[in-house]
Amino acid sequence: MQRGALMALTVSTALAVTGCGGSTVKSRTRSPLRQVTGGILHSLVVTGPRHVNQFWVFDLQHGAPSDSKPQRNRPPGVLHMTFYAGDVREAIGMAYPGVRHNATLRNGIAAGKRAKPLLFGSVTWSGHMGALFLAPSYPSGGQIGGHLVFWWRAHGTNYLMSIHAWEPLTECSSVLRRVVASAPST
């Protein structure tokens, strides 16, 4: 890939980009990935988009997150983002939480093992009204274990965007909000 060239996302089973030598990846719009990583990717694993049963999934991962030390999960050192469309309930094994809440989003709560999600209730981000929560830790949380998650519905379809949580959690929430804002209107 030429330095500074546009990269189009295509359907693939897995794409591993390693040792890019500091290549800059540009998109046609102000990409949230570019904002999070500063545009420099040293290694990135991209899976999808792929169709699995009744949902689509797209996954980006760079680095290895730590659930016990979430302050180390901050980009650009670590980045794990997952996007779902379709039957999200089947994909993550959890019912849509809606407006339920059992916690308040604040700094200092991302560390530790959780068997159940921390539900922050309903929020509206960029016209998308949905549920915000901190997923159970891995392995209980599966693919999105330890992620801050925004899940919304539009026109009969469920959408979920998640990012592996880091501290300060309010900063992680701000980044996820910008990622959601970059999603096309549904």
Commentary on this structure:
With about 190 residues, the protein is mainly beta. The chain has a domain at about 55-180: Protein Transport Mog1p, Chain A. The chain has helices spanning about 30-35, 90, 170-180, and strands at about 15-20, 45-50, 55-60, 80-85, 120-125, 130-135, 145-155, 155-165. It has an eight-stranded antiparallel sheet. Mean pLDDT is about 75; it is low at about 1-45.
Compose a concise summary of this entry.
By secondary structure, the protein is mainly β. It is built from 3 helices and 8 strands, in the order E-H-E-E-E-H-E-E-E-E-H.
Low-confidence stretches: 1-44
Quickly name the level 1 CATH class of the domain at 56-181: Alpha Beta
- What's the total number of strands? 8
In whole angstroms, the N-to-C terminal distance is: 32 Å
Which structural class is indicated by helix and strand composition? mainly beta
Return Rg in Å. 16 Å
CATH architecture of the domain at 56-181: 3-Layer(aba) Sandwich
The percentage of residues in β strands lies in 25-35%
What fold name stands as the CATH topology of the domain at 56-181? Protein Transport Mog1p, Chain A
Judging from the principal axes of the Cα atoms, what is the shape?
globular
Q: How does the major sheet shape up?
A: 8 strands, antiparallel
List the topology elements.
Elements: E1 15-18, H1 32-37, E2 43-52, E3 55-62, E4 79-86, H2 88-92, E5 118-125, E6 128-134, E7 147-154, E8 157-164, H3 169-181
Antiparallel strand pairs: 1-2, 2-3, 3-4, 4-8, 5-6, 6-7, 7-8
Task: List the main descriptive attributes of the protein structure presented here.
186 residues, Protein Transport Mog1p, Chain A, 8-stranded antiparallel β-sheet, 3 helices
